[in-house]
Amino acid sequence: MNTPDAWSNDRNNDGSRWQKLLGRGRGRAGGAQQTPTPPPRESYPPSPPVGPPPGQAHYSVPTAGRRPPVATQTPPSAAQLTRPMPQQGLPPQPRQPQRQVEPSPVALQRLRRDLGRSRVIAFINPKGGVHKTTATVLSAAAMGTARQGGVIAWDDNELRGTLGLRAGSARHGRTIRHLVEHLDQVEAAGVHLPEHLDEFLRHSSDGSFDVLAGDEDPKLQRRLDPTTVLRVLDILTRTHNIVCIDTGNNVESPNWRTVVSSVDRLVVTTVPREDAAFSADWMLDHLEEGGYGNLVKNAVTLLSMPTPNPGPLLHDLQRHFSQRTRACAVVPYDPSLEPGAKIEFSALRPETRAAWFEAAATIVDGL
């Protein structure tokens, strides 16, 4: 594998600094891909219910029945958020009509296709700050909007993820920890499983997808052993058509490896920066060496723009990851995402929403 220093050669020497990297990608394209042999799903005996920590009241699973949707206000559009105020003493300037950009009918048709069974999609990159959570939320929003539900986003970051804070209405404070504590009762719910599971889920503001939030307690990672991860995945795939997983950053974690062994598609998230792209490329090498070459070959890369200026590396990275993975989608910068606050799909620019519909369609293609 290359090193970061090898990625940083002078662009004026031998053309682009990515020449060696791109050549390596072309070399892989002609080689035989190693087909992974994911471990079979474990059969596990019923485990005793996990009790709450000492000093905390025991939470009993509520009776079946879905709560009414939380009333939410329509968020302001990006144009309203960024429109300058008129100067004092001057008449207000007339608003320029916003150009409407509708999602491609072909993209919507691809997103609405019958997938045959529930599909699991993991968003991965061991480096932080590469729009992994943003990509998980917006992909789930685009899929759920097109399919009119049946999509869930799970924050499986073992060390305090933020997906639950950035996506959905905080109608309660329950997280994956509470679900794990009552896993036996939820599994035994039978035909009432969706109603029982719903008591542990949050929902996006527009109702397009559900959210299983991560927990702030780092001690939870000890409970998310491979068997527990598989039990949670089994519940989610029995109640939803698409499960989008925001993964952690530790590629050696049993949790991370269990998720990778159970997915139908990997989505590599990155931004057009050398350190982020190197981390993604190293991870793909790591997966190939571990016997997951077929997952790498069929993965999708998402290149997100963190600034209005795409930067000089975008074209090179797009070409490289198009050779390493099945496809590479580019999504534009949007000012509503810059604060890092709650993500509202409807607050994105029309061009950005259309790009995310197309990116989500690329993710589900071939599943």
UniProtKB/TrEMBL annotation:
Question: Which top-rank group of organisms is this from?
Answer: Bacteria
Q: Which UniProt keywords apply?
A: Cell projection, Cilium, Flagellum
Q: Name one GO biological process term.
A: negative regulation of cell division
- Report whether NADP shows up as a keyword of the record: no
Stretches for region Disordered:
1-104
Q: Polar residues: which segments have biased composition?
A: 1-10, 71-80
Keyword flag Ribosomal protein = no
Biased composition (Pro residues) is annotated at 36-55
User: Could you tell me one molecular function GO term of this UniProt entry?
Assistant: ATP binding
Note the InterPro entries from the entry.
P-loop_NTPase (IPR027417), ParA/MinD_ATPase (IPR050625)
Q: Any idea what this protein is called?
A: MinD-like ATPase involved in chromosome partitioning or flagellar assembly
Q: Which organism is it from?
A: Glycomyces sambucus
Lineage of origin: Bacteria, Bacillati, Actinomycetota, Actinomycetes, Glycomycetales
